């Protein structure tokens, strides 16, 4: 097992464990749709940054990786927001 395995597992677990907490706050109305959307897509750049730091990427590669991940988050934001609004509408109709 390499020296980066444990930190990567911790990073992934942190991102997975916090999602249900955010979802409960969103469903209770304590978190806006916009904030919930950004928390969902914001995991992409956070994961990229954490991965890059853990594996020891050179600074330029790290910046490039995070920039690509941030661009992906911005592109996926409308999709994630649409899915959250669909869930909210389905919950209201039930």
Can you give me a brief rundown of this structure?
The protein is mainly alpha-helical and 94 residues long. Helix content is 85%, strand content 0%. It is elongated, with a radius of gyration of 16 Å.
Mean pLDDT: 93
Q: What's the total helix number?
A: 4
Q: What is the CA-based Rg, rounded? A: 16 Å
Percent in strands: under 5%
Q: What structural class is derived from the secondary structure elements?
A: mainly alpha
The total of beta strands comes to: 0
Structural notes for this entry:
It is a single chain. Helices cover 85% and strands 0% of the residues. It is an all-alpha fold. The chain has one domain (5-93). The longest helix is centred in the last third of the chain and has 35 residues, at 59-93.
Offer a few descriptive terms.
94 residues; 85% helix; mainly alpha
Write the layout of secondary structure elements.
Elements: H1 5-27, H2 33-41, H3 43-55, H4 59-93
Helix pairs in contact: 1-2, 1-3, 2-4, 3-4
